[in-house]
Write a structure and sequence with these properties.
302 residues; alpha/beta; eight-stranded parallel β-barrel; two-stranded antiparallel sheet; 9 helices; 14 strands; globular
Length: 302
Amino acid sequence: MTKSILGAHMSISGGLHRAVEAAQAIGFDCVQIFSKNSNQWKGKALTEKDVELFKESLDRCGISHPIVHDSYLINLGAPADELWLKSIAAFEDELLRAEALGIPFVVTHPGSYTTSTPHEGIDRIAEGLKTVLEHTAGIQTRCLLENTAGQGSNLGFELEQIAEIIEKVEGRKPTEAVGDEFRVGVCFDTCHAFAAGYDFSTPKKYAEMTAHFDEIIGLNRFRAFHINDATKECGSHVDRHAHIGFGKIPLESFRLLLNDPRFAGVPKYLETPKGMKKDEETGAEEDWDAVNLRILREMNNE
């Protein structure tokens, strides 16, 4: 039996430790957070008390596998030097903040080429990442590149693009890494993959997709999953998350991922809309996070 490690992105309003407590209240196993206000380039420096409260809350609440998602302002693919250099500095700060909190991974979208070309954008992202990793050499926290939906000029919607970035950063094929011998891994988002055109709705299609990813990147680099349904059809390139079972992704797709023993130890985080679900008959309300978690757990080990 394969029991998935399930969690969600939770608000840090009131302190980083509040996200951990909120995750426990829903019944999650793990949690994803922003380490600061995601709409600001630079956050307030973490105090010893911030770090102490966060680590204590993880122990007290029994929440494992904390992870950070970086600010959406960051764009390592930016052709303009001012934004590119600002993004490099901001991403370095994200890694250092996570390191201080004892968090092993920071998830980032690879970047957008905007006014340049996809080829130039990939080169720019790789150069930016190399700079960040050189400046943060010696820390334990690593970077996870998240696949995208391919909206606009966003790069990383094809896993080949992520493989190319990793190869340029490390100077070797991604598959040549052994075990934990890497600083750049992958976070796989189900909504983004579906929107980008990946169909993993049957055992055969799922097996073909994961075999392809193993061939070009190596499944050992897949260290987190974002579990989201999609509001638009497969191949739409529209990044809009939906509640599990309320979007366009077949439930079988989630069932296959949840019960894949190769990913049993890889945490899976919801990034579905927040709010309350109202029962039309009784009027009773339930937190959507709890609804999504229940649906996922019911599919797990089927």
